[in-house]
Amino acid sequence: MRFLVICGPIIKFLFNKYIGDLSFDESLSRLIRKFNAQEILLPEESLQFIEVLSGLQNYLITNNIDYRIDPIRKLIGNGHKWTGLLKVLINQEEEVFLYLYEPSSFKNFEEQLNNLSQYGYSDIRIIAPLNLDENEEIYSFIHDVLKLPIYPFLHNNLTSKWLLNFTFSPNTPKTFYFPSDTHALDYIEKIKRIAKSENIEYFILKDEYDFDISPTVPYAITPLDKLDYYCALYYERSQGIANIGGLLIQEFLASNKMLELYKSHFYMQIISGGDIHYKTKIKPFEGGAFLNSSIENITEEITTIPEQIINILNAPIARYYPYLLSSIEYIIHNDHFHVIDINSIARSLNVAKDLEILPVDHILQSFINRIKAEENEDSLKKQFRNHQAMQSLYQDIRNLGPGFISGDRLIKLNDDSEHSVSKFCSNLFTMIE
Q1: 262 phi and psi angles, rounded to 5 deg
Q2: Nearest to 324 by CA among 46, 44, 133
Q3: Fewer Cβ close by (within 10 Å): the C or N end of the chain?
Q4: Do 126 and 170 share a domain, yes or no?
């Protein structure tokens, strides 16, 4: 089978920045120039290009610039324990083509694809950059111009932490939500009243989307009587940050100064062997604290998730997140599990400690094999339908305004009306589908 792997623009940036310090023979130098010129690399050239990427990665590591290697590492592995996307494809004897994506410059991409075969490109599988999150330009071109699906597929709002309170209901923590055009402090008395009735002692404040803004707006743990202070601080620090989304005020589920967190990787369903158990020891936080300064230590280990939990997770993943290659995080607290986050594509398979223990090649093989099992025409229709349905679902959820979810119970804070989360979500999504 033929695969075309799109590389993010960071690869070209790294070549241009460090090319003077790298030593390649003329044939490999020509290959770099062809890649940078946005010409599709053929299978035999893609095999050579792995050598080029390896040289670049080794240079970055040797010169302590390894914070830049994540997009390279996802393509060619870490050099010893796992091999990366390109080598997994080649080891499975797939035909691999490479193309450089740069914003607003697809150039003659469609014509080049037509030249790959006298039979056209309708059967080729296109893999998006695994270091880029939702990119409307790539998706619209592949979907609307080429009429092909793209794998994985991440679209607007899919990693909203408020959305997952609906899609994974009732297995989420008790959560208040305030859209970006509202302000939690306007509802502070109502929050306190509901929190007392729900026996919530501590909250954690989070931004809605899966952005790494912790240096500016770190997660805050707060008791109820300090909520005003930490909400005000959140709004002060988040001013000027684009697309931060709404504010989540969520029950903080720690036991005996320990936070038991699990992460599972998925594509269409949970991938076996890709589960990690984190034990996070927390310093005293009773008077309120930022999470990143309250962590005493973290240990991580590969674990096996009970089949019962896997089955519960697989149903909403298959329905709401079928084309997202990602990881899901959840807490097991008092024998109940609570989904707290779905990571974006770029933030999955990029934590160094995780990569030392994860079966990364197995995760990538599962991703590739599921792509191969689908027909392009069917996948394209499914991706269109899922995109439309999830966008509509998210907009209707956001239109509810400020809300509070506890199990399957939703309270609209504007009018105190109560609703069934699962019924609302299921009815709307079924209607859209």
Answers
A1: -125, 150
A2: 133
A3: C
A4: no
